[in-house]
Amino acid sequence: MTQEIMLDIIRNGLLTVILVAVPPLAIGLVAGLIMSIFQTVTSIQEPTLAFIPKILAVLLALVAFGPWMLTNLVYYFTSLAQNFNHFIHPVF
Fold first, then answer.
1. How many domains does the chain have?
2. Is the dihedral of CA 38, 44, 47, 53 positive or negative?
3. How far apart are the first and last CA of the chain?
4. What gap in Å lies between CA 29 and CA 20, rounded to an integer?
5. Overall pTM > 0.90
6. Residue 66 sits in which domain range?
């Protein structure tokens, strides 16, 4: 296996992980921002008040984007498995 092939595998893996992780993280960020604004406006400083809506938002994001995320992960691992014989060459 050459360095270029290895770098392509790592690059594609990292891009897949980033692509799959962005929707729940972005929705959690937006939910946290909304709860932070709400807490600032109402002067309620309860940590659990911000924590629970973020968990629910991320859970809903996983339910909504789960099939798409799973499809991307399956596509990446399938392409790795199909091209596995190109990654290995005989030692002798």
1. 1
2. negative
3. 14
4. 15
5. no
6. 20-85
